[in-house]
Here is the input.
Amino acid sequence: MKNALAAIGFVILATLALPAGAEGKSAVYGSASAVGMLAPYLGLIDAKSDVAVSVSPLGSGQLVLDVLDGKSAAAVVAMPLPQAIDAAREAARKQGRVLVIPESLLFHELKELSRGDTPIGFVTLGPAPAGLRKLLAELR
Here is the structure.
């Protein structure tokens, strides 16, 4: 158990060292748990796409809210979309806002990478950007 936690911690630290948005890569942020689930594929993601996945200190709700606000093209979440929406509503409520969810909010689940009842995927507003679509094709 300690070795597994140490390995996840190392992956998270290594991910934090990635220069988000460097060399023309699109920065996509996720919670520590979501990026931890992608850990075995971060090398593939870096090598075969123009997406840089990084851990954010923000929770999944704020990350989804950033997508809805147009501050981010995508967010990595490790939860079902309804739960991510609830978390975004709570983040908006704490900011004194009422959140309206557009129908164009999409969850691009990576079923092959999900663990049990915990899905992992990318949340976007509308279709995924070209670089993310290429990444999704590689990971599926």
User: Anything to note?
Assistant: The chain has one domain: 2-139.
